C-alpha cells in the first residue's frame, strides 16, 4: 500500500466512528502522510455572545485536522498537548478550513501545525499539537 493509500485508509477508518466531527458538519477535503485538510461550516448554534464563532469550535476543527494528519501512518496516535492562538474571528455562515502539516516526527512523538482560515484566505487561528503514538494498529482486524 502506498503512503497516500495508507493515509486515506486510516482516515476512512477513523471517520467511520468520529461522531464529533461528523455532528459538526466537518468534511475531509484531503489527507496524506502527515497532512490533512478539513472544512466546517459555522452555524448559528456555534455563535458566542458576540455573535462570532465560539473559539471552542475553531479549536475542535483544528484538533480534528491534527488528528487525521498524525494518524496517517497506520498506528493509533493521540494528542499529548496542544495550543491555539486566535488571530481573527469566524462568522456565522463562514466555511472554515483547517490545514494540518507535520513539522517533526521522531520515535513516538510528533509535532504538527494547523492553520485555520476563512473562505477569503484570512488566517483566523494557529494551532500547534504534539502527538503520542500508541502500540496499536489503526487497520488491525477486529
TrEMBL record:
Keyword Hydrolase appears in the UniProt entry: yes
Record's keyword annotation contains Transcription: no
Tree of life domain: Bacteria
GO molecular function per UniProt: acyl-CoA hydrolase activity
Keywords attached to this entry: Hydrolase
Pfam families tied to this protein: 4HBT (PF03061)
InterPro entries linked to this entry: Acyl-CoA_thioesterase_PaaI, HotDog_dom_sf, PaaD, PAAI_dom, Thioestr_dom
Family as reported in the entry's similarity comment: Belongs to the thioesterase PaaI family.
Protein name, as recorded: Phenylacetic acid degradation protein PaaD
Amino acid at each position: 500500500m502506498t503512503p497516500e493509500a495508507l493515509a486515506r485508509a486510516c482516515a476512512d477508518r477513523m471517520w467511520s466512528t468520529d461522531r464529533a466531527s461528523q455532528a459538526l458538519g466537518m468534511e475531509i477535503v484531503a489527507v496524506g502522510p502527515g497532512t490533512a485538510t478539513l472544512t466546517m461550516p459555522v452555524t448559528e448554534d456555534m455563535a458566542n455572545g458576540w455573535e462570532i464563532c465560539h473559539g471552542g469550535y475553531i479549536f475542535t476543527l483544528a484538533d480534528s485536522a491534527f488528528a487525521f494528519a498524525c494518524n496517517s501512518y497506520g498506528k493509533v496516535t493521540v494528542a499529548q498537548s496542544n495550543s491555539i492562538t486566535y488571530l481573527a474571528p469566524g462568522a456565522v455562515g463562514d466555511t472554515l478550513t483547517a490545514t494540518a502539516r507535520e513539522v517533526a516526527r521522531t520515535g513516538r512523538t510528533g509535532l504538527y501545525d494547523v492553520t485555520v482560515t476563512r473562505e477569503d484566505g484570512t488566517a483566523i487561528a494557529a494551532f500547534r499539537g504534539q502527538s503520542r503514538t500508541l502500540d496499536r494498529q489503526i487497520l488491525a482486524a477486529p
